[in-house]
Amino acid sequence: MQNDSTNNRPRHVAIIMDGNGRWAKAHGLPRIEGHRRGAQAVQRSLEAARDLGLQYLTLYAFSVENWNRPKEEVQALMELLDQFLKDQLKHMLKHKIRLRVLGRYHELPKHIQDRLRDTEARTADFTDFTVGLALNYGSRTEVVDAARAIAKAAQAGTLDPDNLDYAQFRDFLYTGDMPDPDLVIRTSGESRLSNFLLLQSAYSEIHFSQVLWPDFDRASFEAALDDYAQRERRYGKTSEQLQPPES
Length: 247
Ligand code: FPP
Fold this sequence. Notes:
By secondary structure, this protein is α/β, with parallel strands linked by helices.
């Protein structure tokens, strides 16, 4: 799905939040302190995204590969997430922010699943601003989950495989009811997508920021949006085809 972003302002920004560990190391602090400061940067970026008029902000908070980190770090990340959700609920209800969780829900700790489901349900009707939290997320597992659901629908006779096209396929992705990201930002100077929204970012612009995630502030966000505003999105066409006809 292609987006109708107006005034060169993205409608949907997705962020690969990277560099918490390096931030902590640079400050002589334990890794978990980097994550704690990273959680504060999450809060800041939610506020910035709303102020800057975005409609969707999707954050890569925990990948399917992140389970392989040391046990204490995984546990600390889950505790931070739990605390973040607890703190956010009031804010989300007050500012009418909808939460959408993207990922293999059922493998998360039960108390976090419950909190996520509760927050999703209580914010489901808000339409102005949506936060996507990618948790236990990976693009490849997302595609496999979609393929399984499609195969089941075909078996049940509710989907005709011969007529399956991408417009129908995308509805089976975790992001089925969200537009594709216009802009993907990765912080910390790394230049890769790390299994994040690989199908959805087929036509996204990518901005690689040198800033470590805990230091990512409103100015860094605006710099990414300024960079995006300079891009020409051609979706396979030529530059000339995109020019409006002369009147
Ligand atoms: C990458 O830093 C960051 C993550 C593992 C995920 C993002 C987590 C947070 C921002 C903290 C809590 C999130 C929420 C939603 C409350 P890294 O550890 O890979 O950094 P490094 O590459 O410098 O080691």
